[in-house]
Input
Amino acid sequence: MSQAFIAPLLDIKAFAKAASTLSGRDALEKFERLREESQALGADQWVDWSAHGEWREDLSGHETMWLHLSASVTLSQICQRCLGPAEIPVKVERSFRFVATEELAEAQDDESEEDVLVESREFDLKALIEDELLMAMPLVARHNVCPTEVKLVVEDPDFEAQSGQKQHPFAVLAKLQGGKSGT
Ligand SMILES: [Zn+2]
Output
C-alpha cells in the first residue's frame, strides 16, 4: 500500500484499537534531516516504512496501546576508511508503548524496556520514522569491504607544492626582522 502523502498524523488510540497497519515508500527528499546525511542526494532514494497498531492488556490487566514500527533507507555517505562513496543501509524495528501524559511517559520510560511515548490524536509518524532512522545510523560510515585497497600513504598535492617553494629558513627570518638585513 502506498500513501498519497507520507506518513500521516495518526490518532494513536484509534490506530491501536483498530489494529491498523500503514505502510509506505516515500522519497528520501521529503525527510530533510535524513537527506542531509545522504549528501543532499535523495532523488532516487526511498524510505520504506510500516507501522502497526496494537491494543492489548499488560500482565496486570491494564489496557495498553502500541505502535510497532519498521523502516529502512539507504544513505549515500563517505566511507571513513577509503574516503570513497558508500551506500549505507539503515534499518530500524522498534515498538513504542503509548501513555496518556508526559509525566507518565517520563516516569515509565526509565523502568521499561520498551520506549514510552505520549499518546496523541495527531501523532507525527513521519518525525518518528526520521528520528529513529537518524539514531540507527552507524556512528562511522564504512564499507563492509572497501572496493579499493586503502592507501596507507596519502598523497597530498598541496604538500608537494609547498615543499617545492620552501624558503630558506634564514630568508624567512630576515623578513620577520623587518628588512633589517637589507633584503
Ligand atoms: Zn571504504
About this structure: The CA atoms of residues 107 and 116 lie 9 Å apart. Residues 125-136 form the longest helix (12 residues). The helical segments are 12-17, 32-36, 102-111, 125-136, 157-164, 169-176. The chain is about 25% helix and 30% strand.
